Amino acid sequence: MSWDRLAYNKNNMKKRIVLSIVVTLLTISASAQYVEYQPFPGVPQNYSIPFVEYKPYSPTPAPQRQAPIQVYKAIVEYNSSTGHTAEYVLNVGVRGSRVEAIYFDNGGSVHTGTNNSGYYFKGGELEKTTYEGETYYVTKVTISYNNGSWHSYIIII
Fold it and tell me: Is position 136 within any domain?
């Protein structure tokens, strides 16, 4: 075999190797264009994990249901800032051991909590007392108004 023919085969072999490497690389890169990377199936590509501040776990107690108001007939001694006094038998609303509402015969009432009449309901904790062998529950409720006037109710159940 002549040196020319051998040199031709070497160059030809180099071209074939380079050509096969190029074809292989093109095939790999062409097939890689169609593979989509997703870290988790179904998660969009533009999804970002929000920053969440660490807070230690503290169990919150279940909300306590308030006991219903029980209505009782009561003797009510009324006094006012004007000096008027009177005694009535009225219905009073009691929750637990506290008077929370006084119901008047005309349909009106005064009560704890939010009201639109501009008054403040103070007192109402019932105290057990015994008089001449009978057991009673007694409290004093004061209703104060923004203009300085007040009404006081001594309630005996």
Answer: yes
